[in-house]
Design a protein that fits this description.
Blueprint: H1 13-41, H2 47-71, H3 83-119, H4 123-149, E1 151-152, E2 165-166, H5 169-189, H6 192-197, H7 203-214
Helix pairs in contact: 1-2, 2-3, 3-4, 4-5
Length: 218
């Protein structure tokens, strides 16, 4: 590409940095409201609640560790990033990716644990939930290990000229992307059969409850 084509191209790093601030605040508000209801209204916490509280910590850690990547070039076009900036950026991306995977695992597990809390009396449904939990935690654990151990030595991730080797990132992203999509789909449709068995006053109420529980796919 010609040099003039690259001129005056805005960076999107500020948008990523802003998201790192807003996302944990919004999540924190909902989790604090949930904690207030559990500690002061119902005076009882369930497994899904404790997992949600822990996950909020991971989300905050993810935002804190991703933000520095924007100071070192994340959000800019590659022709605006020198080798030193690139190394620092990929270092922080690697650190934040661990907290990202932990956050994903936490939120997905919290939803399935909520389903168990609501509909766990049905043995078949309970076993299906255990299967979804096993699948979700299994592939995310593999994701966690590959993220940190995908390059040998590990510094090759942010210093690409270091002697060593890395896993095929394209195949890795496709594999774990498929895991994300299939687990999201499973979690979204998991409660629907149980909702449809409830004795509610109208079909409209069933659709409304199904929409609320199925919104986890978002």
């Amino acid at each position: 590409m010609s040099a003039h084509f690259h001129d005056n191209v805005p960076s999107r790093g500020h948008a990523i940095y802003l998201a790192c601030i807003i996302a944990p605040i919004v999540s924190g508000i909902f989790i604090l409201l949930r904690a207030y209801a559990r500690f002061f209204v119902t005076k009882k916490n369930y497994a899904s609640d404790w997992v949600s509280y822990i996950t909020l910590v991971w989300v905050i850690c993810f935002s804190i560790t991703l933000a520095p990547a924007t100071w070192h070039g994340m959000g800019r076009h590659k022709w605006d990033i020198d080798s030193e900036m690139s190394s620092n950026m990929y270092f922080w991306i690697l650190v934040s990716s661990e907290f990202y995977v932990l956050s994903l695992a936490g939120y997905k597990c919290a939803l399935v644990l909520l389903y168990l809390q609501l509909f766990g009396v049905n043995r078949r449904f309970r076993y299906i939930c255990y299967g979804v939990l096993f699948y979700t935690c299994g592939y995310l654990f593999c994701n966690l290990i590959v993220e940190v151990g995908g390059c040998q030595p590990i510094r090759k991730f942010w210093l690409p000229k270091t002697p060593g080797h890395c896993t095929n990132s394209v195949a890795q992203n496709i594999a774990f992307g498929a895991g994300h999509m299939t687990s999201d789909l499973a979690i979204a449709i998991l409660p629907l059969p149980m909702v449809w068995r409830l004795r509610l006053r109208s079909t409209k109420e069933k659709w409304g409850l199904a929409a609320v529980l199925g919104s986890g796919i978002m």
